[in-house]
Design a protein that fits this description.
The protein is about 40% helix and about 20% strand. By secondary structure, the chain is an alpha/beta fold.
């Protein structure tokens, strides 16, 4: 009997019995939020809802007592009172792999490019895990993005998280396309979140091009998609980038835009009853932003890196917008696009003075840091005195720093401009930066030589009182004895 009990105890039992799926029914629809009863589901589970147009999928975003709040992944159509709501099977796997390169998928991972379904030998489980900060490799190498102004003056390191701040119509998408074609990264993952549907097609065909698309994965959730689809689009983009990073690849992640992600979360949070805080944004938005951004960056010693560029839509060109201010605090630098430069035909319209790369000192040489800092100082000096120069109130020679800034400004403008189809490698960008520095050095040397010549001429032409010999010597070089003699007479 004792042996039988021992054998029974040694039999492994499942830790938790799997509960059968219990269907519920809709009781209320408010805006984009569906309320259901009778379900046994957890946050994040997907459910199927029977409608007049067929099945519609939704995700659990909250609950209150027995009421389950659902957010649909598509537009609400044909929804009836009391419609049957059934929990879906576990859909937490995705066919990751190199077959994703060149494909366009939606926020839920479904292909939308008409090139057939996604197939892979095995599906990998979705995993949004938090990485230990002590396990990350430090950022020590620069990343070539093919844009001269960024390579030379705002160098990006492998594993850095940069913000691209700009208003609408200033050239964010074009700059992202330039970085996609010119980058030295192995894989490019692009997230087009909340953009116009027309721009998705144009970005892929015109801006990205066949060469850029061959090594890129595009996740598209346009503006007419549901808030949940836009939210999932950002998370799917990070999931794909994390997979390739875990495989040892260097990934360039471009997400346009982080503001649309925040707006989607705001719509969902307000729909389930979360109170607004700052300018209508509930507190959950400001907790989800760092959780999303921190997933990018360097991996461990055996992994690759995710260099991320998150665009931030600045409403009314106000850099103090709550989302812009929050993003600026959690990112490793920011690139600001100026509408004034864009209106003047200066592309890419990068405002170097307002932009910064916080990891640049760790990835470039001290010589490049000095050159970049000198160029930034010249730009700041010119911008501070631009009005005086424009109205003619400044007289040349009054301040050597202003004279130098006026001299170098056209060359800086030429350096920071670039055709959208051109790809300028990192070393060529450094060579151009050295040429700018040589212009400054040559200008300073010429001014010093001119001052020395002027002082020498003045000294030779000025007679010493009481000495006729020196006055008549002129260029004969007899001035020094006369000066000594004059000192002796005064002594």
């Amino acid at each position: 009997m004792n042996n039988l009990l021992a054998r029974l105890k040694s039999i492994p039992l499942p830790e938790q019995e799997k509960q059968p799926a219990v269907a519920g029914h809709l009781v209320r629809v408010v805006g984009l939020t569906l309320e259901a009863r009778g379900l046994q589901v957890a946050l994040g589970d997907r459910c199927s809802i029977e409608t007049l147009q067929g099945r519609m999928f939704a995700e659990v975003v909250g609950f209150s007592g027995e009421i389950i709040y659902l957010m649909p992944t598509e537009q609400l159509q044909g929804v009836m009172p009391g419609a049957r709501v059934t929990p879906c099977a576990d859909l937490s796997t995705f066919p990751f792999g190199d077959h994703l390169l060149g494909r366009v998928i939606d926020g839920m991972g479904e292909p939308i490019d008409g090139m057939g379904p996604l197939t892979a030998p095995q599906a990998v489980k979705w995993s949004a895990r938090r990485m230990n900060p002590m396990a990350r490799r430090p950022i020590r190498e620069p990343l070539d993005v093919g844009v001269r102004a960024i390579n030379g003056l705002l160098t990006i390191g492998k594993g850095q998280r940069m913000g691209l701040f700009a208003g609408s119509g200033v050239g964010k998408s074009v700059l992202l396309g330039m970085m996609t074609r010119g980058t030295a990264a192995d894989i490019v993952v692009v997230g087009l979140i909340g953009e116009r549907g027309r721009e998705v097609k144009e970005f892929i065909d015109d801006i990205l091009g066949p060469q850029g698309r061959a090594r890129a994965v595009v996740v598209a959730a346009p503006a007419d998609a549901s808030p949940l689809m836009r939210l999932k689009g950002c998370e799917t983009t990070l999931q794909i980038a994390e997979y390739f990073r875990d495989q040892g690849r260097n990934v360039l992640l471009l997400m346009d835009s982080l503001t649309r992600y925040a707006m989607a979360q705001r719509e969902i949070a307000l729909a389930v009853g979360e109170p607004p805080a700052t300018k209508g944004y509930p507190p959950s938005v400001f907790s989800k932003l760092p959780a999303l951004v921190e997933r990018a960056g360097n991996g461990s010693e055996n992994q690759g890196s995710i260099t991320a560029v998150f665009t931030v839509l600045v409403e009314g060109d106000d850099l103090q917008d709550p989302i812009a201010d929050s993003a600026r605090a959690i990112l490793d630098g920011h690139i600001v696009l100026s509408r004034q430069l864009a209106d003047a035909g200066h592309y890419p319209a990068i405002d170097v003075e307002k932009s910064i790369s916080r990891v640049m000192p760790a990835v470039v040489s001290p010589e490049q840091m000095v050159m970049a800092r000198t160029i930034r100082q010249c730009l700041a000096t010119y911008n501070q005195n631009q009005e005086l120069v424009a109205i003619g109130a400044y007289q040349q020679g009054s301040d050597p720093r202003i004279d130098q800034a006026i001299m170098i400004k056209p060359h800086i403008d030429e350096y920071t401009q670039q055709d959208m189809r051109a790809v300028i490698p990192y070393q060529q960008s450094l060579d151009g930066l050295k040429q700018l520095s040589l212009l400054l050095i040559q200008d300073a040397q010429n001014k010093i030589a001119a001052l020395q010549q002027g002082a020498a001429a003045q000294q030779n032409a000025t007679p010493v009182p009481g000495n006729k010999d020196q006055a008549g010597a002129g260029a004969g070089g007899q001035a020094r004895p006369a000066v000594k003699m004059s000192f002796k007479r005064k002594g």
